[in-house]
Design brief:
36% of the residues lie in helices and 29% in strands. With 388 residues, the protein is α+β, with helices and mostly antiparallel strands. The chain folds into 2 domains: 221 residues, 3-Layer(bba) Sandwich (FAD/NAD(P)-binding domain), CATH 3.50.50; 119 residues, D-Amino Acid Oxidase, Chain A, domain 2 (2-Layer Sandwich). The strands form 4 sheets. Strands 6-5-14-15-16-13-17-20 form an 8-stranded mixed β-sheet. Strands 8-2-1-12-19-18 form a 6-stranded mixed β-sheet, with helices on one face. It is globular and about 60 Å long. 45% of the residues are buried. The mean pLDDT is 97. Bound molecules: adenosine-5-diphosphoribose and P-hydroxybenzoic acid.
Length: 388
């Protein structure tokens, strides 16, 4: 098989890249280790930044998001039950859109198939070769046969557990990481969320986040131990904590729990995001804790930058965009890392915190929810800005 860009992984990064390249007249083949059904039903976060919603519309996959996504012009921060509103519209005239990541994936897969583009599911034994040459290749097995894709470039969009990053020889990448001493227990509940907008609720018991997928489907998270066993959280215990951490200012309706899982919280970055003709994009190069909801948005920003660099290469034989890809992405990645770390530190209880730390944290929360300058700064980072 021969193509211009071989794409490993059909998550938001790989699928959005393929669509943008298609619009630029650049050919690609996507290979994905899971089934279509699996990737379309994997529950992840679901917050789309202002510019990213416009980008999805511009590339022709925003129609259902416009219909079914929930547009929020603000968010809420609770401090031990006292709820404060942050008004994105008044501060910046920008919004975020709540639309599940798996819905974005469904729309992108449908678009890819309508484009007649190749998208192979359930591939195995994926490996990459000749990364330092101008004819790299991807080997894999599909339908019981060994296959090879010869290409000009490889986009490693295969997430944190993929093979792209580990295929880069030892000694090339620097790894920067931080584990947090807690995780998030998340449920999807057949019940209305307690507010039209999100509530990040800081309490003595730890954080709770009240978000949603629709007016009748709540997505609810609780700060829990780092290696929490889901079995320790029967539904009754989850609801008890969700009620307690919301406080009296809103009512929380209980519903049937459709899904339950624990996410570990970590920050992770590799530098550089390129080796020869292999370009890493999305979770294969960086992970953020979900507090700032930056994961999917960063993946989109990477592939927007990569597609620009590839377009300049193919239409003008320019290589500067490709050479600067890693540097340009990492600037944004570190900004998102800083913001996600800051939000995480602001809103969680830490096991090793001192009485001083706690007073300082409460004062931080009061500042963030009362100073217009501080609210504007939070809002600006939260709603995001387009890759430049
Ligand atoms: N070969 C082919 N595909 C692979 C391989 C492999 N060896 N390893 C992993 N994959 C696939 C995974 O099955 C997954 O579908 O790569 C895809 C990577 O997708 P994501 O993990 O969704 O990563 P990305 O597209 O970078 O999107 C980042 O995902 O994890 C969330 O919070 C994160 O929202 C962020 C977003
Ligand atoms: C979600 O809706 O799943 C969500 C929203 C905001 C976050 C994290 C997750 O910060």
């Amino acid at each position: 098989m021969r193509t211009q860009v071989g794409i490993i992984g059909a998550g938001p990064a790989g699928l959005a890249l393929a669509r943008i390249l298609h619009l630029q007249g650049i050919s690609s083949i996507i290979i994905e280790s899971r089934s279509r059904d699996y990737i379309e039903n994997r529950i992840r976060a679901g917050l789309i930044e202002d510019w990213a919603a416009d980008m999805l519309t511009d590339i022709g996959v925003g129609e259902r998001m416009k219909r079914e996504g929930l547009v929020h012009w603000g968010t809420n921060i609770g401090i031990n039950g006292e709820i404060h509103h942050i008004d994105f519209k008044a501060l910046l005239n920008k919004r975020i859109t709540i639309y599940g990541q798996q819905e974005v994936v469904k729309d992108l897969v449908e678009r890819r198939l309508a484009d007649g583009g190749e998208l192979l599911f359930e591939v195995g034994g994926v490996s990459v070769h000749d990364l330092k040459s101008d004819r790299p290749s991807i080997r894999f097995a599909h339908d019981g046969q060994d296959k090879v894709i010869e290409c000009d470039f490889i986009a490693g969009c295969d997430g944190y557990h993929g093979i792209s990053r580990p295929s880069i020889p030892d000694g090339i990448l620097s790894v920067y990481e931080r584990d947090y001493p807690f995780g998030w227990l998340g449920i999807l509940s057949e019940s209305p969320p307690p507010d039209d907008e999100l509530i990040y609720s800081y309490t003595d018991e730890g954080l709770a986040l009240y978000t949603m997928r629709s007016p009748t489907l709540a997505r609810l998270y609780l700060q829990c131990d780092h290696d929490e066993d889901v079995a320790a959280w029967p539904d009754a215990r989850i609801w008890e904590h969700l009620h307690k951490r919301l406080g009296g200012a809103r009512k929380l309706q209980e519903g049937k729990v459709l899904q339950k899982g624990v996410t570990a919280m970590r920050s992770f970055v590799v530098e550089p995001m390129q080796y020869g003709r292999l370009f890493l994009a999305g979770d294969s190069a960086h992970i953020v804790p979900p507090t700032g909801a930056k994961g999917m948005n960063l993946a989109f920003a990477d592939v927007v930058m990569l597609s620009r660099a590839l377009e300049a290469f193919y239409s003008k034989q320019r290589t500067d965009g490709l050479e600067n890809y890693s540097k340009s992405c990492l600037k944004r990645v570190w900004n998102a890392q800083r913001f996600s770390w800051w939000m995480t530190r602001l809103l969680h209880r830490f096991p090793d915190e001192s009485a001083f730390d706690r007073r300082r944290q409460l004062s931080d929360l009061t500042y963030i929810t009362s100073s217009e300058a501080a609210m504007k700064s939070l809002a600006e980072q939260y709603v995001g800005s387009p890759p430049n």
